[in-house]
Design brief:
Layout (H helix, E strand, L loop, with lengths): L4 H15 L8 H8 L3 H13 L3 E4 L5 E4 L8 H8 L6 H4 L11 H18 L3 H14 L1
Antiparallel strand pairs: 1-2
Amino acid sequence: MRMSTRGRYGARAMLDIALNYEKGPVSLRELAQRQELSIKYLEQLIQPLRTAGLIKSIRGAGGGYTLARLPDDINLLQIVQALENLTPVDCLNNPEACSRISKCATYDVWKEVQDSTRNILASLTLTDMVERQLQKLNEL
């Protein structure tokens, strides 16, 4: 299963915001610079993350984006699901898409892949990811 750039870059943006959580809001310009992404592309990621209640915007001087909840209360599954569909095959979300589901062994495998992926992503909070990032930076 391949994750799109929306999911990957969205997770990176959320990690960046989490790394700066104690410092206050992160401007889109700062976020774009640190993540080497265009502001236009980031705007496309920010909106669904706001709609999902994962980030909020702070207006005015010194404004920007901050987490809507504590980093411990946001997991990678929530982030990725706000940005893309994690279903490896259509029949998992739409059983009517295929009449062979009940007799198809590959359906069961795709379901296991989806469940495993979701479980891994759900088990990792932004706090966990901040710790991993800080550890990587200390290794340099």
